[in-house]
Amino acid sequence: MPTSAVTPIRWTEDRTALVVLDQTRLPAECVEVELRTVREIFDAMYCLKVRGAPLIGITAAMGVAALARQDLMAEPKILRYDVGRWCDYFATARSTAVNLSWALWRMRDITRDNEVDDTATLVEALFDEAQAIWDEDAAMCDAIGGHAVGLIPDGGRVLTHCNAGALATGGIGTALAPVYLAHAQGNALEVFVGETRPLLQGSRLTAWELQQAGLDVRVITDSMAGAFFQRTKPDVVLVGADRIAANGDVANKIGTYGLAVLAKHHGVPFYVLAPTSTVDLASGSGDEMPIEHRGEEEIRNGFGTLTSPEGVPIWSPAFDVTPSELITGIITEYGIIEAPFAEGLEAAVEAADDALDDARHSHGE
To answer: How does pLDDT run across 206-263, given as a tens digit for each residue?
Structure first.
């Protein structure tokens, strides 16, 4: 499979800390920061140094393992308690991204299911699980790209929103996976990136990432989307997801819903690409999904310049919900799911659970 030009996360050499690419400083600076404490790991997720639903989950899992390695002298029962405490804390960093709670659930399971009375063995089990979460996500990205690459016509125009590429995942991305694969196959596609107000993940991150990989990329502001559909019109819209409800409603970066409405009106296919770890069968619909709200300062003074008067209230949800009836298909590592989505999503989650059980049994857990 093709690779991207960026790596957003890695272990330190002694595996007692993480090194992440600080995404708040892109594209002006490409700077890595070391995360060694509980608070540093939490803040990196909350303050968006690390972002993207899959990568948030990977970061939390790797963080738990790194912290555990710092605690090799602790008794196993104390380490198990600490892991639970760290997981509880990390889970509050980003409420909408279900991959976070999913990854932390897997790390908790290691301490629950592993009854060894040797701390070093327990720590290695935590490392193995964190590495598995990372490796599985990379494989999921490849699989999603393979299922979706045929949706992009040769020389086609792809519109995407926010960042669902290598900066947001453990591999080549979700929504950007077929873009990378099509490019590697010689498809002279054009990628149009919505700016993604208020924090500009599209223009700062996706445009930078695709430029680094040598793709033909162009930025439009969010308010230009209507004119773009009216005058130029993309061939397909590809977006990621932070949480997918059982009925196929999708929570994704604020602005996604508007693109889905435009796509429906103009007859453009609108696809959501995400791993099964993003599916939340406990949420029957989008009405039941938690929506994170961000601080007013991200809009009022987000990049150092006052852009709204002090004292004027600001409403700042980080995500919106796209109803399932606006979605052409949801693409997971198990293929393209078409409406009605409930049965296909349940089958994909069941297949993923079975694959995880098989993997654990093959390793003697």
So the answer is: 999 999 999 999 999 999 999 999 999 999 999 999 999 999 999 999 999 999 999 9
**Separation CA 293–CA 205 (nearest Å):** 21
Tokens of 139: 């494989």
Got the DSSP string for 78-109?
Answer: HHHHHHHHHHHHHTTS-SS-HHHHHHHHHHHH
| CATH fold match for the domains 9-142 and 146-353 | no
**9-142 falls under which CATH superfamily?**
translation initiation factor eif-2b, domain 1 (1.20.120.420)
CA distance 98 to 115: 28
Say if residues 147 and 331 touch (Cβ distance below 8 Å): yes
Q: Report, as residue numbers or ranges, the catalytic residues.
A: 242
- Express each pLDDT in 118-146 by its tens digit: 899 999 999 999 999 999 999 999 999 99
pTM listed for this prediction = 0.91
